[in-house]
Design a protein that fits this description.
By secondary structure, the protein is an alpha/beta fold. It contains twelve helices and five strands. Helix 3 links the parallel strand 3 and strand 4.
Length: 261
């Protein structure tokens, strides 16, 4: 690692709610162990200390939504050995990417009294759309165990491999009843990657896709199944048009099924 001392860790925030950073801050004893293993040189959510790079490991929460954030993420990439995006906003544009399906200017005029003062991009996009990313940790918020495990691996000099199997596989391993079969509820588990421990199905609720698409998701077939459950094509598409709708796989399916208005 840089300088022969403790690895330098930096945490940055773009357009987001801070939820993924809070997963790290709420790690309690694990956070103390991390603080002892690394030199946290930039983390505004936790400390006023702020040092320039280079950084050994950099975590970014949030999507690229403004011109200044676009410049910032490019600068961060240049100063970082390992760049890790954490959470749905950073990996797929997040909830704010819903504006990508509409006219951003029209939305601004409907919400703000002085929309001309806004300095935002037409779209909200993932960090990887603009710079090289070494590891993406999905979720809304990111899973704390997955985040800490990834940090441990990176600090050891390796890049971890994350499962991209669907949530359905996790439900089967844990013995959870399928909410789509048993209760007839439209669930995104068949096309969403695991990582959350199938948290929603564990409480009898349908998955809403916050970890983004699984490996080679068959979205078209799932939408056909939703139709059997009584959803119109537009209602079915709205199930996808949520937290991770701007991920490439979901975006392609949505554009085919229901064109943006």
């Amino acid at each position: 690692m840089s300088g022969g001392g403790r690895p330098r860790l930096a945490v940055f925030k773009l357009a987001s709610c801070d939820g993924c950073q809070l997963q790290l801050l709420d790690a309690e004893e694990a956070l103390l162990d991390l603080a002892g293993a690394v030199d946290i040189v930039h983390f505004p959510e936790a400390t006023s200390r702020s040092e320039a790079g280079p950084y050994d490991v950099t975590l970014i929460e949030g999507s690229v939504s403004t011109p200044s954030q676009l410049d910032e993420v490019r600068e961060i990439r240049e100063r970082s050995r390992f760049l890790v995006t954490m959470g749905a906003c950073a990996t797929s544009g997040g909830v704010q990417a819903l504006r990508n399906w509409a006219d951003a200017g029209e939305l601004a005029r409907a919400v703000y009294p002085s929309p001309e003062l806004l300095r935002s991009l037409e779209t909200s996009t993932a960090v990887s759309d603009h710079v090289r990313v070494d590891l993406e940790l999905p979720g809304c918020p990111v899973d704390r165990g997955q985040l800490l495990g990834a940090l441990a691996a990176l600090l050891a000099g390796t890049v971890p491999r994350l499962s991209s199997a669907p949530v359905c596989a996790e439900c089967k391993r844990r013995g959870y009843a399928c909410v789509m079969v048993v209760r007839g509820e439209p669930c995104l588990g068949p096309v969403t990657r695991t990582g959350c421990g199938a948290l929603c199905p564990a409480f009898g609720r349908a998955c809403y896709g916050c970890f983004g698409p699984s490996r080679t998701p068959n979205v078209a077939s799932l939408l056909d199944r939703f139709a059997v459950l009584g959803l119109t094509r537009d209602e079915a598409a709205r199930k996808l048009r949520l937290i991770t709708s701007w991920s490439p796989e979901f975006r392609a399916a949505l554009r085919e099924e229901v064109p943006a208005r």
